[in-house]
Each structure stands twice: as structure tokens, then as C-alpha cells.
Amino acid sequence: VSRFGGALSVDSSHMTIVDSVLDGNTGGGGGGVLLNKSTSTFSTCRISNNDGTGAGGGIYANAGSTYTIDRCLFDRNTNIPPLNKEEKQTGVGLSTKGGAIYSQSSKGSIVNSLFVDNQARRGSIVSLKETDFEDVVFQNCTMDIDTDYFGTRGVAWEFGESPKFLNCIFVSEGFPYFFTLDTADVTYSLIEKGYPGEGNIDANPRFANRENGDYHLQRGSPCIDSGTDTGLTTDFDGNDRPVGDYDMGAFEFPFLRSDIDGSGKVDSGDLFILQGDWKKVSGS
């Protein structure tokens, strides 16, 4: 347990974190990481089960920090006061902000990343304060928003411009995605229940197995080839992107000739189909 930055506190420095797990930390500002006047890069990291009792369950970026997040998983980070954790309802601490990320007067680029079951009253994925247009940009991210905590929204911002979202997927079972009086800048993204913006769609994304945490796209997903060119060359798994046109979400649907069942991967299911049809003749 730390007053600021449960795992890491970076002040007026440069930091690169690669292939790391930041799990189960608690901090007053930044349950996992506090960035203050710093430049930081996070690549292929898992930031999970962290608790920011002030703001920012996973990462708190402050005071002109710049951060890049690439191919990272944020799961089950929280920014909920201790009195609210069991009840998961409104009451003390309604201003809790930024389940995964809280960004104040800072700039961030978040690409090819996955956000699952993070919690906060305002902004379970990200909460922004005092930002300018395009200060914080999400590209090809998949976001499964936890609505167990009463009133939670996925994205919130105040005293500044909204974040920008390109080629993203938003899914949720309950509350609205955005907490603000203004319109979020979202384009070429799938948002269940719909949202205005060029190229946006309202549909079932057809994940491989959402219940078990598999957010790869199945064959026939409306997210395949429905994105726009973001310039990214790999996806969350490090596989080539794009295949055809750009897909929405963290995972690019691969072209696999042996993917017989259309799951997006070659596995035992394809082998069983092949064995069942072995030496059969089409039309016979």
C-alpha cells in the first residue's frame, strides 16, 4: 500500500515497462502507477486488480505527463472508496474517477489494448481532466465495461475536450458509455446500443468467447474490415495488421486456411472437423 503509485511512482523521469505484470497494488493516486511530469511507455503489460483510493485504479497521469500504452491488458482495476466496495452502490465518494486510467493535464496514446471489468463511478475505462482535443487517443482497443458498481460509465471528462476513439469496440450490459454534457469523438467503432459518428456500427461484435475472456473476432463479425487506417502494423497478439482492411478492436481477424470452424484460430475443433470428413468426396 502506497500513498501514491502502489507499484511505481515516476516523477520527472523517463520510464519504459515491457512484458510486466502490475497486480494487486493499492495507492491513493494511481493504484498501480503514478506518473508526474514524466514520459512513460507500457508495452505488452498486464495491469490488474489494482485499487486507486484517490483516482486512477491502474494508472494516474498528472502534471503534463506523456504516456504510450501498446498491447496491454487492464482488468479488474478499481477506483471505489472502501465503504462502497461491498455494496457497489452510490453513497460516499461519488466522484471516484478512472478505474483503469485517470489522466489530468496529460497526453496519452493507447493502442491495441484490452479493458475488462474495471470499475469507477465516472470513467471505468478512463477519466480525463483539463485536456485539449486529441490529447488522449485510443486506437484499436476493446472495452468490456463492468456495470456492477451502480452508475458506472466507461468514459468521463471534465474541464476539457473528450478523448478520441478510432476502430474501438465498446460492450456493456447496462449504463451509458460516456459521462459528460458534450459529445464524445468516436469514429469507425462498434458501440452496442449505438452512438453517432462516422463509420460507427451497432451490432453484436461476435467475440470468440466473451464469457471466458476471449475477445478475438469470429468469422462473420461485423468488426472485420470495418475500421479505418490507423497506421498500426500489429494487433494485441503481435500478429500482422491489417489483413485486408483494418478491423475494429484489439485483435485483427487472421486469414487462416485451416480455420475450418471460423473461430479465428486453428485448434482441436478444426482437427475434429477434418478427421470427420477425411477421405470423403464432395457431393457424395
Structural summary, described in words:
The chain is mainly beta and 284 residues long. It folds into two domains: 252 residues; 27 residues, no CATH class. The protein is 4% helix and 36% strand. The chain contains one helix and 28 strands. The strands form six sheets. Strands 2-6-10-14-18-21-24 form a seven-stranded parallel β-sheet, with no helix packed on it. The longest helix is centred in the last third of the chain and has 10 residues. It is globular and about 65 Å long. It starts with a strand and ends in a 7-residue tail after the last helix.
Structural class: mainly beta
End-to-end span in angstroms? 68 Å
Strand content: 35-45%
Biggest beta sheet attributes: 7 strands, parallel
Number of strands: 28
Shape: globular
Number of helical stretches of at least 4 residues: 1
Rg calculated over all Cα atoms:
20 Å
Order of helices and strands: EEEEEEEEEEEEEEEEEEEEEEEEEEEEH
Enumerate the spans where pLDDT stays under 50 for 5 or more consecutive residues.
84-95
Write the layout of secondary structure elements.
Layout: E1 2-4, E2 8-11, E3 14-18, E4 21-23, E5 26-29, E6 33-36, E7 39-43, E8 46-48, E9 51-55, E10 59-62, E11 66-70, E12 73-75, E13 78-79, E14 101-104, E15 107-111, E16 114-116, E17 119-120, E18 126-129, E19 136-139, E20 142-145, E21 155-158, E22 164-166, E23 169-172, E24 178-179, E25 185-187, E26 190-191, E27 207-209, E28 214-217, H1 268-277
Parallel strand pairs: 1-5, 2-6, 3-7, 4-8, 5-9, 6-10, 7-11, 8-12, 10-14, 11-15, 12-16, 13-17, 14-18, 15-19, 16-20, 18-21, 19-22, 20-23, 21-24, 22-25, 23-26
Antiparallel strand pairs: 27-28
